[in-house]
Protein: tRNA (5-methylaminomethyl-2-thiouridine)(34)-methyltransferase MnmD
Amino acid sequence: MGSGEQGADAGVAWKDGVIPVSTRFDDPYFSLADGLAETRHVFLAGNGLPDRLADGFHVAELGFGTGLNLLALLIAWTQTGRRGGLRYTSFEAYPLPATDIARALRHFPEAHAVAGPFLSQWDNAPAGGVKRIALAGIEAQVILGDARDTLPAWQGRADAWFLDGFSPAKNPELWSPEIMAEVGRHTAAGGSFATYTAAGHVRRSLEAAGFAVTRQAGHGRKRHMTTGTKV
Ligand SMILES: C[S@@+](CC[C@H](N)C(=O)[O-])C[C@H]1O[C@@H](n2cnc3c(N)ncnc32)[C@H](O)[C@@H]1O
Structure:
């Protein structure tokens, strides 16, 4: 661990001065190797994106963290040149302050270059309940609170899910059979999920939740990841 500086709300330390690590969960917010490349491999390609993206397409995420996944999606959507806009709903219990998010994103010049409008709205967005962020091409909302409470109450359905809690061993509450059942219940017909983990109990819970589940090659040194389509 680097200097051991602590963020106020979420509890962040900085590995090598650049990678945010949750002190609450003892796990990094993204891959130590190349977080942006991992996001593109796992969450975008794993959900068949950007090919499936179209006006009104709705992405949902468990664990907003630094917003890196949102920005990777924003870059991919912009590059398609397609018309209209996407919707993005993320669930986050311990929102990071914008200063920590900006510091984390500086590690990824491509994402940081498009992060301005997101960062300028983040701390100003009303803190209670839901933060709404309007980006060019994506209407995002981050639903604050424990996903075990907020996801069952959510009225929406996603076309694609990014399942991005901390590792199942360290953050089991975000990977429980109950939460995976809620993910299934909040997925549109033909919708999909992707996650970096290949944990057997997560795979089985997602099968029970109504997905046809596939194990795929993971990013970098991770051998496997998991994807699925609602059947
Ligand atoms: C691996 S990080 C997410 C990284 C993020 N997707 C990004 O692009 O930076 C996991 C996130 O899940 C959040 N989290 C953990 N348990 C949660 C819970 N029970 N409900 C909602 N969010 C939770 C953590 O606060 C953390 O921000």
Observations:
- The helical segments are 35-44, 68-80, 98-105, 109-112, 116-122, 147-153, 177-185, 200-208.
- Confidence is low (pLDDT under 50) at residues 1-8.
